[in-house]
Structure formats: C-alpha cells, structure tokens
C-alpha cells in the first residue's frame, strides 16, 4: 500500500520534471520568433529606448511599407519560389529515374557507380567554390537562375533515397508484366514507377525545397544583380544596409519567415517524418 | 536467346541514360572544380586578368597570415561550442519527448523543431538584434539586472564566438532532437520496463540503455554536425558583415572573403585545399573512433 503510494508520488515528480523541461525548451525555441514579431511591430525609436518593449506595438504595416521601399520583397520572393520549385521538380525527376535504374535495371558496373554516388555525398561542395564560380563566368551564367538551378540538380542523397524506396515499393512482377506487354523502359517508369512512389516524392520534395529555399552561399556568389536576388540574399542586403532600422529589418525577416512556417505547421507531421526518415536512412 | 541478349543490352543502355545526368553534372560542377582548385592554388589570379604561376606563394601567404590561423581556431571553437551542447541537450529533450508520462507530445515536438524551418540568414539577423550592442538590446538589458555593463556582442572576442555558437545551437538542436527521438523509438520498451523493475533511476536508464542503443544515431549526428561545423559561413557573414572580423571569421568565410572581397582567387583556392585536408582528417578520425567504439562494445 505504502509502496504504491510512494510509487505514484515518484511518478508525479518525474512527470512534473519532464513537463518543466519540455516547456522550458519550447519557450527557448519560440522566444526568438516572439521577439522578431515584437520588433517588427515597433518603431526604431521604441526598440532603442531603455528598457526595450516586450509587447507588440502598432507599426506592423508601417514597417513593412519601409521594407517594400528598401527592397524588392515580392520580386525576390518570386525568384526564390522559381529557383526552389525548379530545383525540386528537376531533382525529383532525375533522382527517381536514376533510383529506378539502380533499383530495378541490370547493367554493368551498377554497384561501383552506386558507391561513387555515395562517396560524393561526403565531399562538401564548398571546396570547389572558386572554380565553380569561374565556370559560371565562362558560361556567362552569372546573374542567371540556371547558375543556381543546374548545379542544384546534383543530389546524391535523392538518388539513394529513391533507390531504397523503389526497391521496396515497386513489385518486380508488375514491371515484368508491363515488359511482356511491350512497354518501353521509360513507359514503365512513367506509368508504373512514378505513380507508385508519390509518397517518396512528397518527402524528398520537402527536404529539397527547404534546402533550396534556405540556400545562401551559392546564390550570394552568382546572383549579384539585386533584381536576381533570392529572398535570403536580399534579406542579407537589407540587414547590411545598416541604417539600423531594426523595426524594418525585423519586419522583412518576419514576412520572409512566415511562409515556410505556415507550410511547416500545415504539414508538420509529414515534415518531421521526412527529415527523420532521411537521417535514419543515411 | 539472341533476342534476349539484345534486349538486355537495350535495357542497360537505357539504364546508363537514366543515371547519366548525375554523373555529367557532377563531373562539370563538382569533380572538375575540385580538381581545378588544386591547380588554381598555384596561380595568382584576380578573376579577370591572366593567371600567373606563382608556385607555393599562395600557401606561403596563408600560412603566414595570422587571420588564417584565427579562422581555423574560430571554426573549431565555434564548432565545439555550437555542437557539443546540442548533442547533450538533444538527447535529453528526445528522452523527455519519448517518455510515456506526457501528453501533448506532438505539440512539444513541433515547437522544439520550429527553429530548423527558419533560414540561417533569418536566424543570424534575429540573433543579431537579440544580442545587439546597444544598452537596450535584449541580452544587454537582462544583464543590466546583474550590474553587467553592455557587451559589444559583435565586436569582442568571446561574445562574438558565443553568439554565433548560440545561433548554431538554437537552429539545430530541435532537428537533432527529432533524429534522436526517431532512434529512441526503435529501442524496445521492454528494456526500460525491466530496468525499472530492477530499480534503475532515470539517469541510469539514459546511461545504460538509451545511449548504448542509440550509438548509430549518435554517430550519424556527430558526423553531420562535424561536417556542418567545418563549413560554417552564413552566420558569421550575416552577423559580422562583409568585413568578417577576425574574432568570428571561419575557414569557409576566410576563403570567401579572399575570393570575393579581395579578388585573390589563388590564395582562396590554397585555403580551400587546406580545408579539404582538414575535412579528410576529421572524417577519418570520426570513422576510426566510431569503428573502435563499435569494436570494444562487441568485445565486451
């Protein structure tokens, strides 16, 4: 009797401790967002007064108008959307094609070529940054979107991911039957493989889109013209102008962050599942 | 028989066609640039005029440049400060999220993961304001309660490093928590039940069950975190501006500044080569360590 009582008591203390820890962690997670929003609604004078304001103010719209006056916010958002979508669609297509070949087709050197792909995953792309830039000048691709999109189509992880998925999800009998009916290999890919792996497209698509959307170093290097800037590069420029209008800078950052957060909150289970699956697989 | 051989050949040709885009693109935009870096490291080049061969001069330059050593030092310090706490806190958070005691698991998980969705540029800008040099900056304001004078977060040596480490920590800890959680969910609950019956404390459960069973996941996280730390660039650039003060410049930032601020593409390439070897050494050490840990575990 006494024992169970003790046990419940101990359990309750543990429970309280776990809740406290998670609440503390969540608050630390959320606080910078709250601070960003608060600053985005305040004038610069309010932000720089002592003590700083801890609650949202009335300048949300005003600050955003200042952002629009200082940067082409919607233009760079459109650029980001175009670049990220192109990369995502391209990667999904190319990686599923290659993944299908590695999963289901017979050809010489298959194992070797696949290990080459895995090895490339370990080499950080920044090491070739300067020659990559040189190639872009030679191709006259500086200040063009293809300078970001084309190299962005290289995705070893995507091929790996698609191969695993296609191996398990597409039954060999189905492919054999289609072959009997005289379907070409590409027809089989298009009519059988691609529709079967739609869930994998969703998960890989999320990972690739997010990486492309948040990419910074390479777009900064090759997209020099302000009209070609992606959102991340444009935000950096806004921040660097250093008129020190914190309200405006926070407003730009806030509105640039909101879309991805909304998408994340809408699909958060799929998001988290995709990313942890991706990590566990590799 | 002959027909099927023909068929096989045709399939193989299609397969090569399907995998060729990766290899072509990688050859042009991945492999060739890397090899070309080795070539360029021996030339003087400003990006426009002719390249001139200078032998080891670029390497001499960077190895006598005190800022290059600062860059290496900063990369390691920030890497350690930014990632080591992440792994410890990540495991603890994942353990708490995995606990059978709690409700709202999904809500907590979502909140803790949210920073990862934010772009690094945004993170650096937000933390730049939270850690502003002004008296009214959030952190300086909090410190004023303890009678601490306002700190110049993006100028002073340790404050710069600590602020950048905190940015890295904040953005990635939730991501790693989710990875750890995924690993923990594959640990059979019966193990914990048995330990509880034997009277194991929570701390003992973490140390004797969770961490050993989680070894592959920990290896993966340490591996990616190390490579990520060695490539740190965006945080210092956005936080410190194009000047990239020596208090916070990292290796990739050093080579970027050489190339795109000073137009010294040769020395930048030499720095890239040094970085390349540092990464290889680290990857090797990582592999060796994880292999050894794996082996001693088995021997026991």
Give me some keywords for this one:
heterodimer; A: 282 residues; mainly alpha; MetI-like fold; 2 domains; 78% helix; flat; B: 300 residues; 13 helices; 2 strands
List the helices and strands and how they pair.
The complex is a heterodimer of chains A (about 280) and B (about 300).
Chain A: H1 2-40, H2 44-48, H3 60-70, H4 73-104, H5 110-120, H6 129-139, H7 146-152, H8 156-169, H9 172-180, H10 185-196, H11 198-214, H12 217-222, H13 231-240, H14 246-266, H15 268-281
Chain B: H1 2-40, E1 43-44, E2 52-53, H2 57-64, H3 66-98, H4 105-117, H5 120-130, H6 138-144, H7 157-184, H8 189-197, H9 202-213, H10 215-230, H11 234-240, H12 251-260, H13 265-299
Antiparallel strand pairs in B: 1-2
Structure description:
The complex is a heterodimer of chains A (282) and B (300). Chain A is mostly helical and 282 residues long. Chain A has two domains: 2-62; 72-241, MetI-like fold (Orthogonal Bundle), CATH 1.10.3720. Chain A has helices at residues 2-40, 44-48, 60-70, 73-104, 110-120, 129-139, 146-152, 156-169, 172-180, 185-196, 198-214, 217-222, 231-240, 246-266, 268-281. In chain A, α13 (231-240) runs antiparallel to α14. Chain A is flat and about 75 Å long. In chain A, 42% of the residues are buried. The mean pLDDT of chain A is 89. Chain B has 300 residues and is an all-alpha fold. Chain B has two domains: 2-40, no CATH class; 65-299, MetI-like fold (Orthogonal Bundle). Chain B is built from 13 helices and two strands; from the N terminus they run αββαααααααααααα. Chain B has helices at 2-40, 57-64, 66-98, 105-117, 120-130, 138-144, 157-184, 189-197, 202-213, 215-230, 234-240, 251-260, 265-299; strands at residues 43-44, 52-53. In chain B, strands 1-2 form a two-stranded antiparallel sheet. In chain B, α7 runs antiparallel to α10, α10 (215-230) packs antiparallel against α13 (265-299) and α12 (251-260) runs antiparallel to α13 (265-299). The radius of gyration of chain B is 25 Å and the shape is globular. The mean pLDDT of chain B is 89. The chains are: A mainly alpha (282), B mainly alpha (300). At the A-B interface, α1, α4, α5, α6 and α10 of A face α1, α3, α4, α5 and α7 of B. Chain A: Keywords: ATP-binding, Cell membrane, Membrane, Nucleotide-binding, Transmembrane, Transmembrane helix, Transport. Chain A: Belongs to the binding-protein-dependent transport system permease family. Chain A: Its main location: membrane. Chain A: The chain crosses the membrane at residues 16-37, 81-103, 112-135, 141-161, 188-213, 246-267. Chain A: InterPro entries: MetI-like, MetI-like_sf.
């Amino acid at each position: 009797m006494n024992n169970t009582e003790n046990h419940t008591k101990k359990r309750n203390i543990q429970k309280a401790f776990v809740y406290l820890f998670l609440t503390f962690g969540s608050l630390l997670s959320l606080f910078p967002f709250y601070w960003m929003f608060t600053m985005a609604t305040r004038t610069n004078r309010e932000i720089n007064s002592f003590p700083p304001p801890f609650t949202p103010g009335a300048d949300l719209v005003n600050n955003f108008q200042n952002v629009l006056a200082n940067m082409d916010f919607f233009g760079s958002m459109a650029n980001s959307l175009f670049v990220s979508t192109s990369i995502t669609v391209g990667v999904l297509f190319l990686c599923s094609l290659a993944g299908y070949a590695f999963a289901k087709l017979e050809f010489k050197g298959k194992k070797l070529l696949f290990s080459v792909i895995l090895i490339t995953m370990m080499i950080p792309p920044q090491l070739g940054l300067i020659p990559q830039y040189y190639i872009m000048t030679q191709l006259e691709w500086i200040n063009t979107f293809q300078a970001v999109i084309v190299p962005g189509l290289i995705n070893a992880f995507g091929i790996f991911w698609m191969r695993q998925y296609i191996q398990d999800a597409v039954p060999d009998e189905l492919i054999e039957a289609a072959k009997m009916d005289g379907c070409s290999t590409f027809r089989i890919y298009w009519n059988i493989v691609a529709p079967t792996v739609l869930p994998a497209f969703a998960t890989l698509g999320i990972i690739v889109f997010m990486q492309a959307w948040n990419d910074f170093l390479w777009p900064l290097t090759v997209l020099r013209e302000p009209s070609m800037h992606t959102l991340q590069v444009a935000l950096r420029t806004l921040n660097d102008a250093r008129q020190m209008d914190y309200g405006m800078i926070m407003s730009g950052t806030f509105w640039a962050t909101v879309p991805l957060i909304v998408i994340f909150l809408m699909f958060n289970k799929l998001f988290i599942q995709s990313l942890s699956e991706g990590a566990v697989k590799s | 028989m002959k027909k099927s051989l023909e068929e096989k050949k045709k399939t193989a040709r299609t397969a090569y066609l399907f995998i060729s885009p990766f290899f072509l693109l990688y050859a042009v935009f991945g492999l060739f640039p890397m090899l070309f870096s080795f070539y360029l490291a021996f030339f003087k080049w400003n990006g426009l005029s002719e390249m001139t061969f200078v032998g080891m001069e670029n390497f001499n330059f960077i190895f006598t440049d005190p800022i290059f050593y600062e860059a290496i030092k900063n990369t390691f310090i920030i890497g350690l400060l930014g990632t080591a706490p992440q792994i410890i806190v990540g495991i603890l958070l994942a353990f708490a999220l995995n606990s059978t005691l709690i409700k709202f698991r999904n809500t907590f998980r979502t909140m803790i993961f949210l920073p990862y969705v934010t772009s690094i540029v945004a993170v650096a800008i937000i933390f730049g304001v939270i850690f502003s040099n002004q008296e009214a900056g959030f952190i300086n304001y909090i410190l004023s309660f303890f009678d601490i004078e306002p700190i110049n977060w993006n100028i002073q040596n340790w404050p710069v490093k600590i602020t950048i480490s905190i940015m890295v920590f904040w953005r990635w800890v939730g991501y790693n928590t989710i990875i750890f959680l995924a690993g923990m969910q594959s640990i059979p609950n019966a193990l914990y039940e048995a330990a509880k019956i034997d009277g194991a404390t929570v701390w003992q459960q973490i140390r004797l069950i969770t961490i050993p069973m989680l070894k592959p996941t920990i290896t993966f996280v340490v591996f990616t975190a190390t490579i990520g730390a060695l490539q740190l660039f965006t945080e210092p650039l956005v936080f410190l501006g194009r000047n990239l003060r020596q208090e916070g410049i990292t290796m990739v930032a050093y080579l970027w500044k050489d190339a795109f601020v000073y137009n010294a593409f040769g020395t930048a390439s030499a720095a890239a080569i040094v970085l390349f070897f540092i990464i290889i050494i680290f990857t090797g050490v990582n592999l060796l360590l994880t292999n050894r840990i794996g082996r001693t575990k088995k021997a026991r």
